[in-house]
Amino acid sequence: MKLLAAIIAVFLAATSINALALVPRTNDFSSSEFEFPHLILNVDSNDPNKAPGSSFSSNVTPTISTIFKFDIPTSRTDKTCSLTLILPNDPSVFTLTTPNKIGFSQLDGGVSTGTTWNNKPPELANFGTQTLQPGNSYPIHTFPCPVGQELSYMTDSVDGTLLNYFQNSGGSNP
User: Fold this and answer.
1) pLDDT interval class at 21 (50, 70, 90)
2) Are the C-beta atoms of 165 and 58 separated by less than 8 Å?
């Protein structure tokens, strides 16, 4: 049974990647360039005061959004970061329903295991909607790596899309 379904990660490079572009997977993400999320929270607008605690999976539904927290280490000084969603070629290892649309945003502040729908930080930047297809990577946001800082991003269902996957925590490709 395959445990990997998708990766949302910060990849670090000396050059930037075009944001919001569909990029066919190249299978060249090394573990030295990979920062997995250090906290994943599935917050529910139907249960807005419940703190779901940490999860290993993203579960995006019309009422549940997933928040990803990244801590950027000082070793990333003078690097460019790219928030990237990678979907494997094998759709049997994740759930994605039509119309395959997911929204991405950055939150203005940190999150913890006590974060709920009602107390999550406000949106800092909206990166729009991506229409997802298996076997592709989606650079969402490219920026100078803010070393020593915590970054929080949120994914939302658009038009009823469901997306569920187990988060890969290594640099290997799903």
Assistant:
1) very low
2) yes
Helices and strands per DSSP (H, E), number in the chain: 0, 13
What are the tokens at 13? 């490079």
Amino acid (one-letter) located at 103: G
Q: Give the pairing type, strands 163-166 and 39-44.
A: unpaired
Q: What is the pTM of this model?
A: 0.83
Distance CA 30, CA 155 (A): 24
Q: Residue 68 gets which letter from DSSP? A: E
| 33 SS3 class | helix
End-to-end CA distance of the chain: 13
What confidence tens digit (pLDDT) does each residue in 57-88 have? 889 999 999 999 988 888 888 888 888 888 88
Residue type, 36: F
By the 8 A CB rule, do 11 and 82 touch?
yes
Torsion, Cα of 111, 116, 121, 124 (10° steps)? 100
Indicate the length of the chain as a whole number: 174
Give residue 17's pLDDT band: very low, low, confident or very high (50, 70, 90). Answer: very low
**In the 3-class helix/strand/coil scheme, how is 67-122 assigned residue by residue?**
EEEEECCHHHCCCEEEEEEECCCCHHHCEECCCCEEEEEEECCCCCCCCCCCCCCC
Cα–Cα distance measured from residue 137 to residue 110, given in angstroms and rounded to the nearest whole number: 26
